[in-house]
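Sequence in, structure out. First:
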Amino acid sequence: MKITIVAAALAGMALATGAHAQVAKVNGVAIPQQRLDFFVRNFVAQGQQDTPELRDAIKNELINRELLVQEAVRRGLHKNPDVAMQIEIRRMEVLFGALMQEVLKGRDVSEDAVKQEYERAKGQFGAKEYRVRHILVEKEDDAKAIIARISGGASFEKLAAERSKDQGSRKRGGELDWSPAGRYVKPFGDAIARLKKGQMTEAPVQTPFGWHVIRLEDERPLKPPPYDQVKGNLQRQMQQRVQKEAFDKILAELRGKAKIE
């Protein structure tokens, strides 16, 4: 274990305090055993072996850091407003993290819940995916005029390149990537599902983005990725959702009780 590796790792960890047993004294200031044990646990959790070499490297790095901290205090750097603010922000981050760990205890997403979400998502997206072109404009009358021009023989692709507000698809003549209808906002997805291959919407379709003229280019059976391929991402998404719900709930409760002036 190289001391530089230990130093880099310790830089990203919060120091634990307290405990009577100590591993060293630096100018009369004790480095508690609990602090060393804290870092050992973190290294072991990352795959390191708990060895005398590791403990000795951590001990020496803690001594080095105590010396540097004492020198920073001697120079009065802790009184610098920016430094004091960073210390306070770090304190808040540590306490916030500890609170969220406490709140999230027992809220891990189970394997069964992930499988249920996978099946629900498959059903939501339907049995087909579609390749469509669209032209997005601000006003319904503009969309109606575009439909009339295309019906009269004008090029859909050319009008998309000239008129569409969708900067991503206009360069491709309004073409969107293959996607199930369920991935679009509902009015857009519903309109796609009603079209036949090569058919264009007879009337503009309104969504929160504006007014769309849509043409269905092609369709094919939807082949969802196998469960094992998406399990990891799906579980992370679900865990993030659980965490957000827990955070929003406790924050709403605290703001409801708090006196904020």
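Second:
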Amino acid sequence: MSRPEALLVTEDGLALRGEHFGAPGTGTGELVFNTAMTGYQEVLTDPSYRGQIVTMTASHVGIYGCNDQDAESDRVQVAGFVVRELSQVASNYRSQRTLEEELHRAGVTAISGVDTRSLTRRLRTAGVMRAAVSSVVLDPDALLRVVRCAPRMEGADLASTAGTVEAYRVGPAHPQHRVVAYDFGLKRSILRLLLDQGCAVTVVPANTSPDDVLAMEPDGVFLSNGPGDPAAVSDGVAATRALLTAGLPVFGICLGHQLLGRAAGADTYKLTFGHRGVNHPVRDADRGTVEITSHNHGFAVDGASLPLDGPFGRVRQTHVNLNDGVNEGLECLDVPAFSVQYHPEAAPGPHDARHLFQRFAQVMSAHSRSARVPA
């Protein structure tokens, strides 16, 4: 069927016309690409994509529809969506609505009919950049002016508003472990895997003070994924330092990995085009294995900056991306803390790294509250 026109413009002046779907309007953000063949609903609802327009490199998107069970948060998080071809049907027994209906009710503007292969090659060469998708501003020069007024991702503290505003608890009444999870943009799959380890989880807002966390007497603290620049999340870094000082076991994923790295004395930096996909090979130095992993990050910990004698002692690299050598994991050797850059909880997959949640449970068991340094 014939659809209204839509326009995609990038900050370096590229203008691509296509067909509009989703909600009418204009969306601005950092234009990135994801190489996954499936899992578009999880991508759309991942809070780590807040402030970004996502291009899917898969050529045909939307064929299995969307449902209430697979969402990673309570809403669509992306600022815009770009696909080569939108499926005209949603054929799956679990489907409750089409991809277009999902975006329309979320108020997100999307464009199809774009050469996503060429667009991805451009982003790999020039780096991710600001862009806009619009069904109402169809003049390239006018939309370019909108793009160049949009905020940049560098220096953006998006994590402070990406998660819950009130604490809540999930899990059994008599758990094996009590965990406090900082919500910088927490994915629901993470909670499911913590519950699988017998944990009761109290999820707290990103600005929760470490004193409040310590008053809950948890067995461990989880630092969640989330959007934005880790260098801008100063409260999260300060809280992590306080919790490490108290001797609490800490496990971080994605943004949580970057915050732990900065708290332990390392630096972070922005990648040229980031890692976003479900097929990244990561070497686990401890296990001597290579795992296929899911990624969604535009910033990374500088592995060369991991300190031999930092504020919490020695820190070592545990995981590395075999595509480009980027740091993918770290461990503090003198306090009970570790983290990974990628997503071991990935849905719909891969599941190679889910053992890390069992490792967190083991670390908590090995570090009882009675053995910790008083706060």
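Remark: The domain at 159-371 is CATH 3.40.50.880 (Rossmann fold).
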